[in-house]
Each structure stands twice: as C-alpha cells, then as structure tokens.
Design a protein that fits this description.
Helix content is 38%, strand content 24%. With 343 residues, the chain is α/β, with parallel strands linked by helices. It has a nine-stranded mixed beta sheet, sandwiched between helices. It comes from Kryptolebias marmoratus (Mangrove killifish).
Amino acid sequence: MIWDQLQLNPTITAALQRAQLKSFKEVVCVSGLDLQRLTGLSQAEVQEVLAAAAAACRSHSPVTALQLQRGEHHGYEFGLRLGVGCPVLDQLLRGGLPVGGVTELSGESGAGKTQLGLQLSLSVQYPQEHGGLNSGALYICTEDPFPIKRLQQLILEQPVLRSDVPPSLISGIRFSDQVYIEHTADLESLQVCLSCRAPLLLAQGLVRIIVIDSVAALFRCEFQADDWLERNKQLLAFSSSLRHLSHEFNTPVLCINQVTDVFNQSADSLGPSSSSVCPALGLAWANQVTVRLMMRRLQGMISRGAQTSALRRLEVVFAPHLAHDGRDVGVWREGVCGVLDAE
C-alpha cells in the first residue's frame, strides 16, 4: 500500500486507509482539521502525516529535458507566472512574477508597494488561465498593522480591475478567507513563521505566494552599524529560508523593501548635494534576490473619471528574463494599474 512507504505508526496507516485517502498529494491538499476529522487521529499524528506526505511529494523521479520543454513534469510548472491583474504591468513583467525565486519590490514610503502586495494576494486566487495560481496568500507584516480596510476595498473592486474575468467566477472566490496574515515583531518570530507556519500552509496547498512587508524593518531595528557582520549572517540565513521555500514549493516570494538615500556631491558643484535612493540592506541582500523592482513617486497628478492619483513608476532594476524598463502607474480604488498614453 502507498501509506506503507511513509513508515508511519501502523495505527496511523490504518486510519489513512479507512479514510480512503489514495495519494500523498490528496493528503497535503486537505487542511489539518479536515484530515483530523476524516481519520480520527490526534493533532500531533496529523502533523506527522502532513510532514511525511509533503516530503514524499517532493521526492519525485528525475526529470528529462524533453519533459521540461513540454512542461510535463509533475511538480515543475515551466514558465509559470503570477499575474498582477493589469495588462500593462503584466506586459512589463512578461506575464508577472516568476513562481521560482525571490522578487524584491523597493521604494519610498507612499510609493504604492503595499498596494501591489495586496493586489498580488488577490490575483493569486484566480485560476491559471486568468493569471493566478488557484491558491491563497501568506502576508507577513513586520512593522505596520495589516491594511484590512484597503484589502476589503480591493475585493469589492475586483469586477472593475478584472474586467477580463467572468463576474460569476469572481463572485465565487472567497478572497478574504484565503489571505493568511502573520505579524512578526522580531527576527526570531519571523524565522519561526518561515520554518513552521509557512511550510505547513504551502504543503497543504492553502497558499501559493509569500509576501513580506517589509524585509528591512526588522534588520534595521535589531542591528546597529557596528553589528554588520552578525547582521549579514542573519540576512543570509533569512534569504536562504526564502529561496528554500520558493524552490521546494514552486511558489513566488515577494519581499517589500525600504530605500536609503545616496548622496552625490560633484567636486565643482557650489549647490547642495543631489540625492537619490537605492534599496536598503546593501549588496549582501541584493545578491540574494532573483528580480528587483522599484516603485517611485513622481511629480504631478493623474485622473481617471472622478478619481485622482499621484503619478508613480514601476521599474525593472534587474531580472534574468526582463529588460531594464518601466511603466507609469496610478493607484486607484481598484488597485495599481499602468497609465496609458491617453491618460
């Protein structure tokens, strides 16, 4: 029998057989409470089953080049992207965020970073044919309270943002039930979340994107300038956990990052030094991300009907599959959208 491969306690194996669960994938897609109800096992026994089944799902057979080319390999979704929900931005990103690897979104306060993180937490819940991954989102807040009112507004405005999706499909998605929120006040609680809570949600198929808002907050408050060596060690351990989760569960990870000022003073200039910004945490962090995006707030306002928005710009700083490019965007009631030339 398939459950004999897991080398579980015979009592647990018998309970799984009585519940008529016939595959490892079927188990990891069932919530812990439902699995406990179906099998009559204790909570500790259910956690043991979930961990063993998830490990069995990951230990698949080798993949051939032909399977990769055709996208046939179980567990490997070739070229899969998570769309933003805006055609202009999805075109910029060639379909959206890659499911494998860590994407960083940096920018100044008020640039619209959290708005885009919330939008992706809803976009992930759509079927793949509409740019989603047919699953939920884990949203980890490290500094500010979760913006629940804004999320509710985005949910109500989904028919406006996603006019390409049948209204019956939108009304059938329980968006708020599939956004799992965690608050981590220090690095220790963040690592516990990434090592315990996140793998369980991913293994059960309940989430398919991790959003961390923001990655710089905890490192900035817990380390002083003289602690740079220890900070870099912690930063590498943190990024290693993110990459492991992304590749193990084939899921996109979005890290929202703050920025720091960079001052340039030319030798012959008599005026004040000019200032620009760059993502926080330096090269130690920059070398760990696969895609780096930046949102900037520009001068001027734009309008759309009765709505107005400050003009912003989303830019690709670097990515292995994207050209360095950008699009002007606005933040509207329905979400972050690219600005057309006519606007």
